[in-house]
Amino acid sequence: MNIAALPKIELHCHLDGSLRPNTILDIAKKEGIKLTSLEPEELQKELIAPLECESLDEYLERFTIPNLVMQSKENLSRITFELFEDAAQENVKYMEVRFAPLLHTAKGLDVEEIIQSVLDGMKDAENRYEIKGNVILSCMRTMSAESAFDVVEKGRKFLGKGVAAIDLCASEEEGFCGKFIEPIALAREYGYRVTIHAGETGIGENVLEAVELLGAERIGHGVFIKDCEKAYNIVKENNVTLEMCPTSNVQTKAVDRYSEHPINDFHKDGIKVTINTDNRTVSNTTMANECNIIFKEFQLGDKDYQQIYLNSVEASFADTETKEKLKTYLK
């Protein structure tokens, strides 16, 4: 199976974890932003998390440098365009990119300007390449519920114009869902779709609460439903799709090695899984790489690829016309 030539869909990719290192250097030099090093090889060591990370929190440290150069409209548009360009060049036909607008206000941009800038970059790429996309607005779990309300309200005007969903991300603590019930309920009322990071760091119960309390349609990662029967059952019975990110999960020590990843067990048991990069730069990966790793590790074949691709189509927050178009790429 030539995975490089096959159509791909990515549903879980963070903008600030997927910058080209040369772009960071270029912007830093132009704007006088101080970096630890201006040497590409040294910078990459700061941007890429090792497979031997000790935890999710250590992994998240890699996002500090990218955010330094993501504080202007021009830079946000450029970085988004380049991400979609990179994805299109490896035959990704549809991608949902997520980012937290509140991380990009350090130099005075307001949330609406930030969202519009990202959408501009995405639409430029759509016009130039055979790729379609949507944007997911992430709210930081380390921030207040009020901050989530702010993102929900200011993102509302962009619904149906490139913004499709709301997300909760960042460091995962047990029981985080209770704090965000009201803003996520408001988001659903406005028409946002809902995907929630949960079950990435050993707390399967968070997945259960993400579905029951927040109405999550998809779960980012969800690895630890393997240790929580109630969470496992609600994911399976409610057809909640898991956005799985194998390399990232090894780096954050959700699993110790690829062979221990539960994606194949979930897949064989009828749970809807998808394959994603999470962060192309921080995890030093691509969609082709992630698929190759999993398909070789678990000896999966063409039918498995088709099923996982169709899982991604159906779980995507794309409109019906786009979904039908994406299905044709398999024929």
Question: What would your notes on this structure say?
Answer:
This protein is an alpha/beta fold. It has a single domain, classed as Metal-dependent hydrolases (TIM Barrel). 45% of the residues lie in helices and 15% in strands. The chain is built from 15 helices and eight strands. It has an eight-stranded parallel sheet, sandwiched between helices. Helix 8 links the parallel strand 4 (163-169) and strand 5. Helix 5 packs parallel to helix 6 (111-128), helix 7 runs parallel beside helix 8 (181-190) and helix 9 packs across helix 10 (229-237). It is globular and about 50 Å long. The two termini are 15 Å apart. Its cofactor is Zn(2+). Keywords: Hydrolase, Metal-binding, Nucleotide metabolism, Zinc. Substrate binds at residues 14, 16.
Q: Key terms for this structure?
A:
15 helices, eight-stranded parallel beta sheet, 331 residues, TIM Barrel, alpha/beta, globular, single chain
How would you briefly describe this protein structure?
With 331 residues, this protein is of the alpha/beta class. It is built from 15 helices and eight strands.
